[in-house]
Design goal:
Blueprint: E1 5-8, E2 13-18, E3 21-24, H1 32-45, E4 66-70, H2 76-81, E5 87-92, H3 95-104, E6 112-116, E7 118-119, E8 127-128, H4 130-133, E9 140-143, H5 149-154, H6 157-162, E10 167-170, H7 178-187
Length: 188
């Protein structure tokens, strides 16, 4: 993949150099070859010609935006825009990724809030409603949570209504009815 990679003994995790940061990778990727393969898949997924790409020249995060990244995983999207944002909320459910994210964003911790939980329509146990954890206006919402997007949007009604001009990059391809469900929630 051409990017610098290595193992950080202090963190106990592999990393890849991405956008000038060490992007730490979850423990399940326990060899440098697994890390490099995973990183290559991220690059392919976010290639300019990929339908999975969240941003393009006409649709992007602007300087000073407050951004919410739901389904952060390794944090590649957040690293793409971290230099522009005034604040970044990272919502991730998987413990292994939370550990990696803490290391990745340690140098910019003053503008990053990491929240562990499954984004949903309510806050209960390991579920979290965005309305319950984000109280400020947001300019950009990225959501890729494997088919749970409609349920998570239902838990973000106040956030969406109070954030005039909100840009949303919400994945609608995980299940055959995702696009319809997401549109229904948006119309409510």
């Amino acid at each position: 993949c051409g990017a610098e990679s290595g193992f950080d003994d202090k963190a106990g995790l592999f990393y890849v150099s991405h956008k000038g940061f060490r992007m730490y990778i979850a423990r399940q990727f326990d060899t440098e070859e697994k890390v490099r393969r995973y990183y290559r898949s991220i690059l392919i997924e976010q290639d300019e010609s990929s339908p999975h790409r969240y941003l393009d020249g006409a649709f992007s995060v602007l300087d000073g935006d407050v951004v919410v990244d739901v389904g952060t995983a390794e944090g590649n999207f957040a690293l793409e825009v971290i230099d522009k944002v005034s604040k970044m909320y990272l919502i991730e459910a998987e413990c292994d990724w939370i550990e990696a994210l803490r290391h990745t964003f340690a140098d910019v911790h003053d503008k990053v809030v990491i929240i562990q939980g499954y984004a949903s329509d309510c806050t209960d146990g390991n579920k979290v409603a965005l309305d319950d954890v984000i109280k400020e206006k947001v300019q950009f919402l990225k959501m890729d949570i494997e088919g749970w997007e409609a349920k998570a949007l239902a838990g973000a009604r106040r956030l969406i209504e109070s954030s005039a001009g909100l840009k949303c990059a919400v994945c609608a391809y995980h299940n055959s009815k995702d696009e319809e469900r997401i549109c229904d929630v948006a119309r409510e």
